[in-house]
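Supplementary Text 2. Reproducibility record for the structural model of the 211-residue chain.

All settings were left at their defaults, and a single model was retained for analysis rather than an ensemble. We include the record here because the model underlies the residue-level annotations in Supplementary Table 4.
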Amino acid sequence: MRTAAVAGGLVARARRTIRAAVLLGCVAALLTACSGADPLSEQYRSGTTKNYVAGDGSVLEIAQANRGASVEFSGTTQDGSTVGSADFLGAPLVVNFWYAACAPCRVEAADLNAIHDETAPKGVEFLGVNVRDGADTAKAFMKTFAVSYPTVIDQTDRSGGVLLAFSNYVAANTVPTTIVLDKQGRVAARISGLADPSTLRSLVDTVIAEK
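Retained model, structure tokens:
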């Protein structure tokens, strides 16, 4: 009887071990799925623009000594003009990724425009990057929200778009995303999601003051 009881205990323990292993495997699979959730850069590379996600306003700031190479990009604006990274070298540049139906993009539009107007006399440039809409939709949004800086219509050229170019330096994995480049065109900071205006002003002031 004692032998049978011991054997029964070993079987029960083995079953518990198997269940635990299965559970851990499921958790690992879920974590893998989450870590592989489609960032915009991966979506852009694969040619899909669905499942854009909203960020929480988190900030990534990169110390001047730790920044990578200058970002290189080019695109066509809402009025058909060509614009590229070389046009902004020597000046801080704020790049905002957006699209018209994005609710936080609408909320932050006035703040971005105000900061643009405040910092333009200090040499700061702003550039919008519309990742979903055509030129007419972008222009209607810009008129409604009095956006005074240009926007690249990025969804029309997946082979060399601005979002794709930035994905080689820092992920713009939410909409909106606002990226601050320093005077050398290097990524100095990123805000994922709705940009807090005081935070953005501080990030811009930092790159203005840099030597």
